[in-house]
Amino acid sequence: xxxxxxxxxxxxxxxxxxxxxxxxxxxxxxxxxxxxxxxxxxxxxxxxxxxxxxxxxxxxxxxxxxxxxxxxxxxxxxxxxxxxxxxxxxxxxxxxxxxxxxxxxxxxxxxxxxxxxxxxxxxxxxxxxxxxxx
Length: 134
What we know:
By secondary structure, the chain is an alpha+beta fold. The protein has 5 helices and 6 strands; from the N terminus they run ααββββααββα. Helix 2 crosses helix 5.
């Protein structure tokens, strides 16, 4: 992550100020896309990085010393978008990319929308009355 000496940032603005200029510009673009796509999502810091919540954790992003990461927080979401994610270095829940080859805003929008639908469906499932007969 960006060099975090001293106290951890408490806001996304503070986090972005702690990131090198080139990475900051890319992450500000991702932030803007998330906020436009999920205007009702709550923005904050979680796990020491920007985190968005919408009916639970939605997505996150971070800067590291040698790459940037976008976290869809869903293996199912990543599997559903496998073809579009193929050009990127990935692990179970992370999409890694270099500062000079950022994720396209269209892909960020798709991932955020897919995560919103997942969270909405999970939330709707929680609200259904039990069909159990006593």
